[in-house]
Amino acid sequence: MTQHDPVRRRFLLGGAALGAGALLAACTSNESDNNNAQTTGGNNTQTGGNAAPGQKVKIGFSAPAADHGWLAAITTNAKAQAAEYSDVEFTTVEAGADAAAQRAALSTLIAQKPDIIVMLPHDGKELNASGLEAMKAGIPVVNLDRAFPDALAYRLQIKGDNYGMGVAAGNYIAAQMKAKGISNPIIAEIAGIDSLELTQERTAGFNAALAANGLKVANRRAAQFTADSGQAEMSQLLQALPKIDALWNHDDDQGIGVLAAVTQANRNEFIMVGGAGSKAAIEAIQADNSVLKATVTYSPSMASSAISLARLIAQGKGMSDLVELEVPKEIILASETITKENASKHLPLGF
Fold first, then answer.
1. Domain locations in the chain?
2. 3-class secondary-structure state, position 144
3. What is the DSSP letter of 43?
4. pTM
């Protein structure tokens, strides 16, 4: 990989990262801060290759807004990445409060005939029809994170590896228990929203990795991907389990509340693994002054990669490190385990 190939480099960095003292409430902010955005330098014409200015393209974008660090970073990263390219016109439509509102907004966007649309749907199944509508209108769709079930509804699907997150968390815990000589550990799990397929995939991967090591979950509770719900569920879990050896919490924003409950209960006999890779979680892992010892990545850098790849698709280009002439149909970014030893490497991709 050469220095004049920033698009491929950005893709690899996103995959590597996915491959986030106490956690700070600031990580739940949804205020845009391009200084913290995860981008590659598209406007640096000296890099040449795919990053050099080319055919003008209009990229339409839609993603839910929320008081959640990960979702906020998705939009921040997309806007910042688009700004890196002088040949990109970036148009955002509000996703609204639910799938119906986003569907209406997307219909309006489709009528404007952008060259390509990048969308993170409220729900992949419910917005599948919007993907089909755009594709039938001749507008390629980049489906971000929440998968459309119909392959005809997207030109490119790019997402993190939810099952892989669970596997990474399970493997880390199994290795730590073996290193500590704990043969029958008490393992707990604080999941996210149970009705979401991504939560189910994360739990499935976690269970599979533990089972491969002869281990299982003793107590599992589902929260709502919020700090308040994390604190409430963790408080009840701590009451149910007088002793814990290891805990996996699916989401680092949710983990703020989980750690608050741990501190309130004055419990520190176990290790905790987080999920997603927030900047605050990575900094806490570096500080090594709490039960949080690792987090498994699901980076919002995928939004930056989605914009870069959407631009290439609209311009009829491929990824320059691949032999094929077109961008692939599907990309799943790897989930990696962040520990004290490698936290500094992953910190720039925290959100």
1. 6-19+21-160+300-334, 162-297
2. strand
3. T
4. 0.81
Percent of the chain surpassing pLDDT 70: 86
Task: Give the burial class of 54: count Cβ atoms within 10 A of its Cβ; 0-12 exposed, 13-18 middle, 19 or more buried.
Answer: middle
Whole-number Å distance between alpha carbons of 14 and 217: 30
CATH class of 162-297: alpha beta
Q: Please tell me the distance from the alpha carbon of residue 301 to that of residue 324, in angstroms, as a whole number.
A: 24
CATH architecture of 6-19+21-160+300-334: 3-Layer(aba) Sandwich (3.40)
Written as one letter, the residue type at 49 is G
Q: In whole angstroms, give the CA distance from residue 230 to residue 233.
A: 5
Residues 6+ apart with CB under 8 A from 214: none
Closest of 52, 83, 200, 211 to residue 220, by C-alpha: 200
DSSP 122: S
Take residue 239 and report the two structure tokens written for it. Answer: 């009451």
Q: Which residue has the tokens 């010892």?
A: 293
Amino acid making up residue 59: I
Type of residue at 123: D
Distance CA 135, CA 130 (A): 9
Confidence (pLDDT) at 15? 34
Distance separating the N- and C-terminal Cα atoms of the chain: 26
What's the one-letter identity of residue 295? Answer: T
Length of the chain: 351
What is residue 23's predicted lDDT score, i.e. its pLDDT? 33
Comparing 6-19+21-160+300-334 with 162-297, is the CATH topology the same? yes
Res. 204: pLDDT tops 90? yes
**Residue for token digits 């989605």?**
306
Report the Cα 272 to chain-centroid distance in Å. 19
**CA gap 69, 27 in Å, rounded:** 6
